[in-house]
């Protein structure tokens, strides 16, 4: 692993310089922001020509790939869903690139294929990213994405015949699909035409989304523009037709937190032929409001307004002033209300997070009182289905050692406990959960804050230092809950490794206060929490620093990039996937402007000063001694990632490699791998997921000098 790498030389353009509030900052690799330039493509190829052979020529690559493929090859199921007279469910036989949607006449009836995305491309890169059924269940509007892009094309399928209508709706991204109750059409958001490509490899900003109404059977050219905000280019319009069909609820977002609420009256029987008259309910971006259901003009929302852990409120649209709002279910003192569904006409299904574990219960829609608690082990509900009009619910429970157990409960039979509908079985010889230990510990961060962390390892009497994978995210109010992953299980099973998942600040595990503790000017807390997790694992003999790997994706890629700059001495290896690495220009590409709510806007001096301190691109260093040597680092990105453009990883890799080029203290490799026809992660075909996981485990095998106990 100590061979000296000769990295490609990335041209430095010394003429590119920006003035940030009086600070002159050079951006010598800006040319890498153009994905179509021949020079950029040549650079990408030259990097892949180093990283790909390094990984795939390792004798263990094929063994790891074979073992991963075997482990991945087990049937995976989603929860049954009822729409109209049919039930539907997703199933993957094991190694299919995309899961297949099946249709049944009854819950236990024979199933037939309703939609199989695998037939839409030879390499499995066309994915079903979205679906929405009409109220009567006769039609399904569905969105397909290509090569992992956020862009989708909407088609409509007849539930009876399985055939598609002629029309295809394009220029759609970050949109809901919401049918009117007359089943004649739906609302969706689309972006205006733009110059150049819209295939996910472009970097243009996404602005001026507008809401349209599509009438079934007509071409997109005839769609009616119903809502627009021309003076607010960054606003995104999330629309939902109310359960009664009389309101179009509009949740407007401009970044990744807080929304405002408008609504429009929908008159049954009236055609939608022009812009709707919208009325405002909430006019300030200061809290989140999620529509749950309504009874007449009384509309139920989940909100963190004056409730950091969220509560359920009722707003009467006929008397909507805040002074008239009612609280149905108050904020819990400690538990965070993660989501709410209305089921069985008058019940609310509520999911809470309690110390990073899922709690599920049903409450009365009328009184808010608890009706029943659902018994769960330590883990997470990863899927649910249920609607206001139906009495049945399904939920899929998963944990670090459980790939999924689907439960069925019918409110028509309240005295009967939930029944196991389907257990998902692993393809791992001799697998027994009792052979593994799962513990949750709380460690102290730099400022004394107690941070929870799950640790998974083999169940042994003697604890000895082993290879360890520390995975983190820490942002955007997203909670890292205990769920199953094949790659992690293989790390423990095959390499006798230790997995660690710290619930660092910036996430939503403890509500808005936890999120606020790791965003904007508090972002350094996220990196401190992660580094203190590493120190805990080392000090408590789970691992040693040269056997500790860190990994994160997207915002977690930023986490990894910042931490190897700040504490290179603490880690043996690092894997940064699709990371945000240029914190001075992230807001200029695709949907990056929406991330200012977590990162801050560099056009404001206070936030520039903060961002510049930790921006991975701007804090690379040349190692002056062995303690400053970077750990073995693998930077991963994809050419169709239009969420976090690959330019971030390209520029960071160029800066890293240039900084260490002549350093005698840098022996560990710093590699960049760019996947083709792939995106940020959603919809990634199984074959590409296995390939990436093989690359990551091979890199860790080489970096941490792991012994493969059962390859």
UniProtKB/TrEMBL annotation:
The keyword Protease applies. SUPFAM superfamilies: alpha/beta-Hydrolases, Peptidase/esterase 'gauge' domain. Transmembrane segments: none annotated. One of its GO terms (molecular function) is serine-type endopeptidase activity. The keyword Oxidoreductase does not apply. Residues 495-701 form the Peptidase S9 prolyl oligopeptidase catalytic domain. Its EC number is 3.4.21.-. Keywords: Hydrolase, Protease, Serine protease. Residues 8-419 form the Peptidase S9A N-terminal domain. It is an enzyme of class 3 (hydrolase). One of its GO terms (cellular component) is cytosol. GO terms for biological process: proteolysis. It catalyses: Hydrolysis of Pro-|-Xaa >> Ala-|-Xaa in oligopeptides. Belongs to the peptidase S9A family. This is Prolyl endopeptidase. The lineage of its organism: Eukaryota, Metazoa, Ecdysozoa, Arthropoda, Hexapoda. The gene is Dgri\GH13380.
